[in-house]
Write a structure and sequence with these properties.
single chain, alpha/beta, Rossmann fold
Length: 225
């Protein structure tokens, strides 16, 4: 089984659809109820106890978990000094703590299976140091640092840990971003265009597969930076 957080929409849903369409058994986690052709469960990644309950149930069912994709995320484009406290907390809690909590609860299931792959999500904004995304960048930079260290911790168990760091992707997250802001980000990329969710799903599917058996502790920047 492959576990994917943020499964209700955007990149998370695109990844779930791609993996399930390729024949994988997928469990999608989302804050809201999801109608989908794969198994779903309602859970917020910031709810450590809730995640633990999901992991306990999978352990009880003796499900063999081979992969984890932490696609749940929250974004805010605003200057750090004008970002409200509640927004700052939410962005950091979902992006950084949510990723850590998910790994803490589900990685032991991969360890029982003696192998597998974990894919966490960063953003190309970390590499570009984008103005107006300080809080978002801080949360995702934390994910990158956590992933590099966690990759070393998991290596002895045959588990790989990598990050995917996309540039602008055609999802709902772009609705609150102006064309000018998108253009500024795209100009900083090596491949100067906005990508479809399918491009990210391709990358995630590769990192979960044995074709990426030699990759761990890496950050794959979709679009290049």
């Amino acid at each position: 089984m492959l576990i994917v957080t943020g499964a209700s929409k955007g990149l998370g849903r695109a990844i779930c659809d791609r993996l399930a369409g390729s024949g994988a058994t997928v469990l999608g986690l989302a804050r809201t109820k999801v109608e989908a052709p794969f198994e779903t469960v309602t859970c917020d990644v910031t709810d450590y106890v809730g995640l633990r309950k999901v992991a306990t149930e999978l352990r009880r069912r003796k499900v063999a978990v081979t992969g984890l994709v932490n696609a749940a995320g929250a974004a805010s484009m605003n200057l750090a000094v004008t970002t409200p406290e509640n927004v700052t907390r939410r962005v950091v809690e979902v992006n950084l703590l949510g990723t850590i909590f998910s790994c803490q609860n589900f990685a032991p299931l991969l360890m029982r299976n003696k192998g597998g792959s974990i894919v966490n999500f960063s953003t190309i904004a970390v590499a570009l140091g984008l103005k107006g995304e300080s809080v978002y960048v801080a949360s995702k930079a934390g994910v990158e640092g956590f992933s590099r260290s966690f990759a070393r911790e998991m290596a002895d168990f045959g588990i790989r840990v990598n990050c995917v760091a996309p540039g602008p992707i055609k999802t709902d997250l772009l609705k609150g971003v102006t064309d000018k802001q998108i253009d500024e980000i795209v100009r900083g990329q090596i491949l100067q265009r906005v990508f479809d969710p399918a491009a990210v799903a391709d990358t995630v599917e590769l990192l979960l597969s044995d074709k990426a058996a030699a990759l761990t502790g890496q950050v794959v920047r979709v679009g290049g930076a």
